[in-house]
Amino acid sequence: MPIPYRTSDKEKAKGAKFRYPSKRANLITVAIRLGMLLLMFLSIAMIVYLHDAISEEDQYVDAQTNINTDLTYIDALYFTVISITTTGYGDITPVTQEARLMDTIILSIGRVIMWVIIVGTAYQFIFERYREVLRMKNIQQGLSDHVIICGFDTTGKTAAQELVAKGMKKSKIVIIEADAEDSQLAAEQGYVSIQGDPSKEDILTSAMIQKATSMIITLSRDDTNVLITLTAKDLNPNIKVIAQVIDLENEKLLKKGGVDVIIAPFVAGGNLMATATSQPHVVDLLEDVMTARSGVYLNEREVKADEVGKTPKSIPGRVVMGVVRDGKIVELDKLDKLKLQKGDHLLFLKKK
């Protein structure tokens, strides 16, 4: 039984969430930064303490009693914290030139580091959230005539790579993936990535499905694929849906649901493996012409007006492998005498 498509146990997808290549601030990041800040305080306090301890004269004076005394480590830590945080009570004061020079250099550096850490963390948690909202709006406004891929498993990744190989920009490919890690991976690879459930209307709306041309569904449950198709067709009746079918008995359900092209990967894979037992080079050739990455691949286009009435072989500069008429591929043995008609589609080899 196929594994249901569901949100990762590590991170539940709640609504549309755009993913970006840059890493986001989180509690672990904050904990690390606070740890660095504490370590800096302790280190500088130790420097102040040792500096006063090894010096022949007292470097600091208690401003309340006006008595020069040796600093304890607690005194040094207290002096460091109030100095770096600019609280500056003035009850412990550097009185020698050497102590004042150290305060000017070391404590000032610590003060700068502290504010960099504080401001940087605040920026990631507050300001970057507003920036992400603006980025999301800009991405959505720029989406048009794009392709949506539901699922970033092996099939989804391969589909995205093939689209890029055939000349599509990554900014025109939207990945919808519920798993947080896979969604982040898609973003890191340069695609527009949305973390969420592709069967939800708000997720598809965030992907600007109204302006999309095609949708590829690669999920491992036929019922989920039907639900996604129904939702997609309701939002955009003109979108072309390509979906894989796991159980061939569900093929008719996918067709009724509105899937335009149904792919049975297990059946196709079985056919190729059977062919490879006696004709391995045929399999190699089929793989070459199926993908643009090899340099030559099968392409499809509608017959031009000046090609009507001609035979497929008479078209210059094209190696025609097939003709589609009324949605069906014409048998190969009939291509020699076939006269092209308006509305026919040519299947031909194309160089990248």
Structure description:
It is elongated and about 110 Å long. The model is unreliable at 1-13 (pLDDT under 50). Helix 1 (27-54) packs across helix 2 (73-84), helix 1 packs antiparallel against helix 3 and helix 9 packs antiparallel against helix 10 (280-290). The strands form three sheets. Strands 1-7-6-5-8-9-10 form a seven-stranded mixed β-sheet, with helices on both faces. The protein is α/β, with parallel strands linked by helices. The protein has helices at 27-54, 73-84, 97-142, 154-165, 180-188, 201-206, 222-235, 251-257, 265-276, 280-290, and strands spanning 17-19, 60-62, 67-68, 92-94, 147-150, 173-177, 192-195, 214-217, 240-244, 261-263, 296-302, 319-325, 328-329, 345-351. The chain has three domains: 27-138, Orthogonal Bundle (Helix Hairpins); 143-263, NAD(P)-binding Rossmann-like Domain (Rossmann fold), CATH 3.40.50.720; 295-352, no CATH class. It has ten helices and 14 strands.
Termini gap: 40 Å
The CATH architecture designation of the largest domain is 3-Layer(aba) Sandwich
Give the SSE order as H and E letters: EHEEHEHEHEHEHEHEHEHHEEEE
Strand content: 15-25%
Q: Find the structural class using helix and strand composition.
A: alpha/beta
| Low-pLDDT segments, ≥5 res | 1-13
Describe the structure in brief.
The two termini are 40 Å apart.
Task: Give a topology summary.
Elements: E1 17-19, H1 27-54, E2 60-62, E3 67-68, H2 73-84, E4 92-94, H3 97-142, E5 147-150, H4 154-165, E6 173-177, H5 180-188, E7 192-195, H6 201-206, E8 214-217, H7 222-235, E9 240-244, H8 251-257, E10 261-263, H9 265-276, H10 280-290, E11 296-302, E12 319-325, E13 328-329, E14 345-351
Parallel strand pairs: 5-6, 5-8, 6-7, 8-9, 9-10
Antiparallel strand pairs: 1-7, 2-3, 2-4, 11-14, 12-13, 12-14
